[in-house]
Amino acid sequence: QVQLVESGGGLVQAGGSLRVSCAVSGSGFIFRISVLGWYRQVPGKQRELVAQITSDGSANYADSVKGRFTISRDNAKNMVYLQMNSLKPDDTAVYYCNKFPARYAWGQGTQVTVSS
User: Residue 28: is its pLDDT beyond 80?
Assistant: First the structure.
């Protein structure tokens, strides 16, 4: 069973920065070869993919965050990160990590709130 634990969210003013983290543990999941993703969801809307990163560190981003967010990973620690800069109120959401495509049960997520 794989566990996904997100952390690092909070309240920040528009233009500010946050880094959210995700710890991955459990059996049946070979972290270092997996494509990982950060997703976000706001109430009443579908969860959306924000960024993904391959095993060799190649990343892709949703157009809405391109140039502002950076996804990274630490294969030695089974951690994946999302550095978020120049935050906007539209970035307010609960942020989740998972494989890409999503496969495992979702964690609790971490709330990011950007005030205007």
Answer: no
CA gap 77, 102 in Å, rounded: 20
Q: Could you tell me if 52 and 60 are in contact, meaning their C-beta atoms sit under 8 angstroms apart?
A: yes
- d(CA 40, CA 47) in angstroms, rounded, equals 6
* 3-state SS class at 1: coil
Token pair listed for 66: 């391109």
What contacts 43, CB < 8 A, 6 or more positions away? none
The full DSSP string for 41-101 is: E-TTS--EEEEEE-TTS-EEE-TTTTTTEEEEEETTTTEEEEEE-S--GGG-EEEEEEESS
d(CA 69, CA 34): 20
Query: For residue range 68-84, what is the model confidence (pLDDT) as tens digits?
Result: 999 999 999 999 999 99
